[in-house]
Design a protein that fits this description.
Largest sheet: 5 strands, mixed
Distance between the termini: 9 Å
Strand content: 15-25%
Mean pLDDT: 97
Length: about 110
């Protein structure tokens, strides 16, 4: 398990929900997907979800599956209502300029060490 804050630093990301302390969130695995139904059926609690989708439904799916953090690739930033809902649900939102492939590779390396 790694701390989300370590991953955030490694990917040069920004915490879009600073009221949620990334230092306190443990990440056990990752999931990369842009299809909500697949995430609902296959993602596991404790995973960081890497996606380019920025709409409100990503927060609902993360909440249902126990995902503590959503990582928006390619510099994606959701609108304010999405961030507000994530705060209500206690889900940390991160944005990074890196591609999903790069984000997944860095997460994989960190989890393997």
């Amino acid at each position: 398990m790694i701390k989300l804050s370590d991953y955030l630093h490694a990917v040069g990301g920004s915490n879009l929900t600073p009221a949620i302390d990334a230092e306190e969130i443990g990440i056990t695995d990752g999931y990369v997907c842009d299809m909500l139904s697949d995430v609902m059926g296959s993602a596991k609690a404790g995973q960081a979800w890497i996606t380019i989708m920025k709409h409100l439904n990503v927060v609902a799916v993360a909440s249902m599956t126990g995902i503590p953090a959503i990582v928006f690739a390619k510099g994606g930033v959701p609108e304010a209502p999405v961030i507000e809902k994530a705060l209500e649900e206690g889900i940390c939102l991160i944005t990074s300029a890196l591609t999903p492939f790069e984000l997944a590779g860095i997460l994989y390396k960190q989890l393997e060490n």
